[in-house]
Amino acid sequence: MTDSHRLNRMFRPRDLPEFVGLRRTQIGELIKAGKFPEPVPLSDSGRAIAWLESDLVAWQNARIAARNAIIAERNEAKGHE
After folding, report:
1. Any bridge partners for residue 10, and if so which?
2. φ, ψ for residue 40, nearest 5 deg
3. With contact defined as beta carbons under 8 Å apart, do 51 and 43 qualify?
4. 7-61, pLDDT tens digit by residue?
5. How far is CA 67 from the centre of its chain?
6. From the centroid of its chain, how far is CA 25?
């Protein structure tokens, strides 16, 4: 089965806090600020929404990379003291 034929795992709003470690209100603020993936509407009304697991993993990886960059900068600064 090719990747284009595989189902994407999706997370509903109630599942996000456990997956990303933030409260739903914090997630909403990050979405408005463009710092968290947009949800996928599951219905035409847009009331039912979910996030693709791949989008959430990419967001997590970006946060990890940002943390690692800060640590590397700190370590580099210590090396120049």
Report:
1. 52
2. -100, 125
3. no
4. 999 999 999 999 899 999 999 999 999 999 999 999 999 899 999 999 999 999 9
5. 15
6. 14
Q: How many CA atoms lie within 13 A of 71 on its CB side?
A: 6
Q: How far apart are CA 79 and CA 40, in angstroms?
A: 45
User: DSSP string of 11-22?
Assistant: E-GGGHHHHHSS
Look up the pTM and report it. Answer: 0.81
Yes or no: say if 52 and 42 are a contact pair by the CB < 8 Å rule.
no
DSSP 53-64: HHHHHHHHHHHH
Q: What is the SS3 assignment for 77?
A: helix
The token duo for 35 is: 């710092």
- Cα–Cα distance for residue pair 11/49, rounded to 1 Å: 9
